[in-house]
Design a protein that fits this description.
The complex is a heterodimer. Chain A has helices spanning about 5-25, 30-40, 45-65, 70-80, 90-105, 110-119. By secondary structure, chain A is mainly alpha-helical. Chain A has a single domain, classed as Four Helix Bundle (Hemerythrin (Met), subunit A) (Up-down Bundle). The two termini of chain A are about 20 Å apart. By secondary structure, chain B is of the alpha/beta class. Chain B folds into two domains: about 10-135, Rossmann fold (3-Layer(aba) Sandwich); about 145-220, Orthogonal Bundle (Arc Repressor Mutant, subunit A). Helices cover about 50% and strands about 15% of the residues of chain B. Chain B has helices at about 20-30, 45-55, 70-80, 95-105, 120-125, 135-150, 165-175, 180-185, 190-205, 210-220; strands spanning about 10-15, 35-40, 60, 85-90, 105-110, 130. A six-stranded parallel sheet of chain B has the order 2-1-3-4-5-6, sandwiched between helices. Classes of the chains: A mainly alpha, B alpha/beta.
Chain lengths: ~120, ~230
């Protein structure tokens, strides 16, 4: 089998996995939004911070794997903010989380284009 | 349990804390054919145990995992003498981490966003080569060179390993990525002589290939700092 045909098979396999796992990936945003909510109300603790860091880290990895570079980059920026000594820029964090949700939930056609380009 | 392997099938262990990533990797391997996923580990400690239990040919190891991080996992696995070929998986990695991983026994690095290259990477390490972001072994030596240039080395300490001045000279060429022919021409000796020197060097320092030797030389200050 040629390398080209192999790569097409891999792309098809990854696209199918992404279709099946996208809801789970989107659900990870909840940890980020929960942390934001607690941050706004001054109730953010280490536990919810850890959960948010894990969610951001996993999203950065998994979105990159599925060719969603923009989403991966956004998640990586969020992770970077969450690892700062104190999350000083809550506005930027909130913007990034909203942007990430928008990227994951909206415009599937453009995501498809990215998948083709990046995989 | 141990090995139950079909002919020519590569046995792969997946270690990543993210179940979606594990599923994606498994699917990629299944779709490609010729691979048997012998286990999945969700943290470093589990990866160490599963390497012992399943004796995989290849370990796909996430760099950042809970409990025992990827490089520490790699260090532990290497210390057990396991013959598994480890490919690190990561979203991003620094040159320093790449070098550290190679020193700890990794055979390559695959970025998650380049997972389509996974099969080529596995084929490369199964063939005895290294795989760094689609690059071949000569690029790995370049990484070693960069690190050597960036980090001042102490006075060469060849005497610790019983190396002769000529052998130290040859090691210096190796860390620069030179081939036997280049070394032979530079030193006005034959390629056969270079090979004999290399064999002696490998025996003295306990390395088995040029990349390991280059990394070892940088690590132990066996070559003088390069002047630019």
């Amino acid at each position: 089998m040629t390398r080209h045909r192999n790569e097409n098979k891999l792309r098809a396999a990854l696209e199918e996995i992404w279709r099946n796992t996208r809801p789970e990936a989107i659900s990870r945003l909840a940890a980020l939004e929960s942390f934001l909510e607690k941050l706004r109300s001054g109730r953010a603790d280490d536990e919810c911070l850890d959960a948010a860091r894990t969610a951001a880290h996993r999203l950065a990895g998994v979105l990159g794997m599925f060719g969603l570079e923009e989403g991966s980059s956004c998640a990586a920026k969020i992770e970077g903010l969450l690892w700062q000594e104190s999350v000083s820029d809550a506005v930027l964090l909130e913007d990034l989380v909203h942007q990430l949700r928008h990227l994951l939930e909206g415009k599937p056609a453009s995501m498809k284009t990215q998948e083709k380009r990046d995989l | 349990m141990k090995r139950s392997k079909k002919p020519n099938e590569v046995r792969v262990l997946i270690a990543d804390d993210d179940p979606i990533v594990r599923q994606a990797l498994r699917s990629v391997l299944d779709a490609s054919g010729g691979f048997q996923v012998v286990g999945e580990a969700e943290d470093g400690n589990m990866a160490v145990e599963l390497v012992k239990d399943t004796l995989p040919d290849v370990l796909l190891l996430d760099l950042l995992m809970p409990n025992l991080p990827g490089l520490e996992t790699l260090r532990t696995i290497t210390s057990t003498g396991a013959e598994v070929r480890t490919l690190l998986l990561c979203s991003a990695i620094s040159t320093k981490q790449v070098l550290e991983a190679l020193q700890l026994g990794a055979r390559g690095v695959v970025l998650k966003k380049r997972v389509a290259e996974l099969i080529s990477a596995i084929e490369a390490v199964m063939g005895g080569q290294y795989w760094i972001e689609s690059r071949n072994i000569s690029n790995v030596v370049q990484i070693v060179q960069q690190l050597a240039a960036a980090n001042p080395q102490p006075v060469p300490s060849q005497s610790r390993f019983g190396l002769t001045a000529r052998e130290t000279q040859i090691i210096s060429f190796i860390t620069q990525g030179c081939m036997n022919r280049d070394i032979a021409n530079s030193l006005s000796i034959t390629e056969e002589t270079v090979k004999r020197h290399l064999t002696n060097i490998f025996n003295k320092v306990g390395m088995s290939n040029r990349l390991e030797l280059a990394i070892f030389a940088i690590e132990h200050g066996l070559v003088p700092k390069r002047t630019r």
